[in-house]
Amino acid sequence: MTIAITGATGHLGRLAIAALKARGGTAVALVRSPEKAGDLGVPARAFDYTKPETLAPALAGVKTLVLISSNDFNDRAGQHRAVIDAAKAAGVEHVVYTSLLKGDASPMVLAADHIATEAHLKASGLAHTLLRNGWYTENYTGSLGGAIAAGAMIGATPSGRVSPAARADYAEAIAAVVTRPGALGKVYELAGDTALTLPEFAAEVARISGKPVGYHALSEADYAAALQGFGLPEGFAKVLADSDAKADKGALEDHGKALSALIGRPTTPVAETIAAALA
Fold it and tell me: Residue 37's pLDDT is what?
């Protein structure tokens, strides 16, 4: 059965390809620039979410499609609709979509595109599986250099608990659902095994780095302004600040341990991901 993975040269896509290969499987890489996919070790086909005419031809012969959500926030829901419609036209039998933790129950602005995509998948009649991913630990470790230099992480989550997992854990979940029977029609709420506050996260950074690092809580508006000051576009900065503020109210906390059950091992400890980022 031919498996195809969109966004295969992105962070999650690359890890998903590797996880699938580790399980003895293989996939077709669907990417904007096939010439950049040579190191993946799998066939690559041109596939651009924003160019609907490229989609159905690239899905010829594909039975299972992993739709990794677009990182282009310009009409993400529209891009996803185009992929789903192309999958139906091409005869794809199973779509696995990387959605957001809690789905239509999430209060985050970021959830809107995912809710719309889930609805379109249901309306399409295609058999599908939803991987509702929580936060990647790397969402926090990506900026640790600046945080250590400044002596503090900043954000709008002063006391709420989050349940992050390493990006590789979510990639293994993709490999798991496409290589085993029984995933059709299921919804998986995926998150790390352990919930912690961001001040606790900062304390781990301080412990591992050996340098003083605290957590400086900002209002949602001030955090959005700070992100803009770092060079993020205004709209994206506001979305991230909203996510942080909603996380303070529990939007990214989960205790179901569905991710570790799916991948057959505990999720990667936060400390391990922090240490890897600082290495």
Answer: 94
